[in-house]
Amino acid sequence: MLARRDIGAALAIAAIAGLSCLIRLPGFTEGGFASHDVGGILYEAMLLRAGGLPYVDAIELKAPGTFYLATVLAGPEGRDIAAFQIAANLVAVASLVVFAALAWRLWGARAAVVAAALYALHDAHLDSMDANYVTWAQLPAVAAGLCAAWAATWREGHALRSRSLRTWLLSGVMCGLAALCKQPSGVVLVPVLLWALCPPGRRDVRAGLAVLAGFLLAHLPVALHYLARGQLGALLGGYVWNPWGFEYIARNTTATAPTRAAWELVAAAVHFLALPLALAAFALAARPRGHAPKDISHVPAASPSAPAAPAREHASKDISHVPEASHAVAAGEPASKAVLPVPAASPAAPAASAREHGPADSAHDFGAPPPASAAGPSGHAPKASPHVPGTMRFLLAWMAAAVAAAATGLRFYKGYWLGVLPPLCLLAAAPWGATSPALWRRGRVRFLVAPLVLALTVRAAWALRLTRDDRARPHDEGARTIGRWIGERTGPDDKIWVWGWHLWGVHAYSGRLSASRVYKTLGLLTTTPDDTWRTPAGAPQVLTEGPWAQQLLSDLAADPPAFVAIGGTAPKHEFPALRRFLVEHYVRDHGLRVGKVEIWRRADR
């Protein structure tokens, strides 16, 4: 039976999830692109439904997982943005709930509420481009952490060894799914593999192999699809080792000095994650020394028949200064086997604790705390040590890997920081940190830290308000209008070609595929974007001598599209060969005017 406080925590988490739904409410009803990358996702879904393949029939940089998801979730034709956006919002809320379950597993019920609230204060703002790649990758990444926490718990019981290995395998599958949705999100494999392979005081090769097997297993369906079409090499070259992506990373890296990159990383992290960063730093500073760094999590409960120790001795003992435990861990003994002295209590205390919490390794109570442990005289809660062996090392490794992923390309967009949010919030919610009531009773915490936390909370809440207002405004009215106009004037077999990232959605709204494999031009027809989280992009330059410019001209000549739409920001005058082709075979269609967009109709239509 759940304790009353567990029921209260579950209700609080449900309320937090409900508030997150309210913030995302426009995404359930708006039905328009909030991110133009979603136009690319739905285009690839349309291509798959038409029998084509990403990386083969379209040059693509992104991971293929979202393309396959869209074929199922974006309506019968794979291009229904409204249905896809509703599914994305449900996935985002599910990520919040699974994250709360992970926090509960690691730190307990109270910490789960704090972690969930902290996460919900930031995730919708960081993921303001809803239905984007990061939205879909976040759920399996957090689920990988939850599976790893369960597997690490069950590993401590010999009777549950096989269950632990199966759960490590499932954690690896979740890591693979995260990578399939967004390649940088696959870095969650690093901390999970570290946790599986290197538990405190020993090595577990079988668990590490299970994680790697699960990671590969997640890729098996996509690999088999490409293999059946004889295009496995295209998948490896487009997804695993994409030269376009590596060129993008190399170009941005070489153009930024290391000191400037380091400054941009720190500034962006503080700007987007100030509150969880402050609380995580506070928790790490307040972390008890001695037992906590060694991840000693399983402390045998006192026997009801044990004799009571003198009160004076009870008051003087602190579990964080037990030499036997340190020696056991240093000698390579698993932390869970270290025998630690426990302050004596009344004979009824252990039984009451067992009734309230249940066994730590219970497979049915994901919030079960560890067996009874002692509290030091400093006022830290008994839960100061992690509930699962290796927790702190896992969280620190996860945060480091996620920060490295956020630095990909050195642009530091806010969506990149969504992957850093889970480990940071878990560190912030550690039992000896912000969730410890004893610490908040101290004067300097109340008068120095509390105002800072309050100010940062108000700032995060205000950002959420702005995000909700932004989600209520469609960002693709032009693409909707152009797509509808072209769709009415073409047949299902007609092709089109568009130039401009803000026009990618025209494919989905018109239901027409691209006449060229070069349906995206960034980094192919034009230079890669150089804008960052706080600086605008410079003027793009056309790579007229590059291979993709020649590929585009060849594709258009071989299968002339019915319509060509060129965005107002596209450097069209720098591509004279394309201009000549349009003048020779097309006429300007002035029947529709949308900003500075040029629409060209094939002359024989």
Q: What's the short version?
A:
The protein is mainly alpha-helical and 605 residues long. The protein has helices at 4-23, 25-29, 37-49, 65-73, 81-107, 109-120, 123-126, 133-154, 161-181, 189-197, 205-228, 232-240, 243-254, 258-286, 311-316, 323-330, 348-357, 391-406, 421-428, 437-440, 443-471, 477-488, 505-510, 547-558, 576-585, and strands at 495-499, 513-514, 563-566, 586-588, 598-602.
Question: Could you explain how this protein is built, in words?
Answer:
This protein is 56% helix and 3% strand. The chain is globular. Strands 2-1-3-5-4 form a 5-stranded mixed β-sheet. Helix 23 links the parallel strand 1 and strand 2 (513-514). Residues 291-386 have low confidence and may be disordered. 49% of the residues are buried. It has helices at 4-23, 25-29, 37-49, 65-73, 81-107, 109-120, 123-126, 133-154, 161-181, 189-197, 205-228, 232-240, 243-254, 258-286, 311-316, 323-330, 348-357, 391-406, 421-428, 437-440, 443-471, 477-488, 505-510, 547-558, 576-585, and strands spanning 495-499, 513-514, 563-566, 586-588, 598-602. The protein has 25 helices and 5 strands. The chain is mainly alpha-helical and 605 residues long. It is found in: Cell membrane. It holds the Pfam family PMT_2. Residues 64-222 form the Glycosyltransferase RgtA/B/C/D-like domain.
